[in-house]
Amino acid sequence: MDSQQQLDLKINQLKLKRINELNDKLRSELQRDRITASNACLSLINYTTRKKDYALPELWGYPPRGTNHFRDAMTAAGQQDVNTCCIIM
């Protein structure tokens, strides 16, 4: 019976250890800063309206000359410059 009691004690200790680890994890998650979904949406809207995204030329236009290193590497005739390795089509 003594070995059974030792086994029960070890099982209970393992259960307690797992519960304490879970409790610590939940405490750390509770300390995170949280914002509401509506505030997160407003933050995204503000960011996207302030930052220029040239992938949407209808909204932001085209990037100024000299700022697009992919376009500047190509010559006007569509040939590769010496500094480029390939053309993506």
Strands, helices and their partners?
Elements lengths: L1 H29 L6 H14 L6 H4 L8 H4 L17
The beta-strand count equals 0
Report the β-strand fraction as a percent range: under 5%
Tell me about the largest β-sheet. none
The run of helices and strands is HHHH
**What is the average of the pLDDT values?**
82
How does the helix and strand content classify structurally?
mainly alpha
Distance linking N and C termini:
78 Å
Q: What best-fitting shape do the alpha-carbon axes yield?
A: elongated
Q: Stretches where pLDDT falls below 50 for ≥5 residues?
A: none
Q: Nearest-angstrom radius of gyration?
A: 30 Å
Oligomer: single chain
Features:
single chain; 89 residues; mainly alpha; lipoprotein; prenylation; G-protein_gamma-like_dom; methylation
Quick recap:
57% of the residues lie in helices and 0% in strands. It has four helices and no strands.
Summarize the structure in words.
The chain has 89 residues and is mainly alpha-helical. It contains 4 helices and no strands. It is elongated. The termini are far apart. The mean pLDDT is 82.
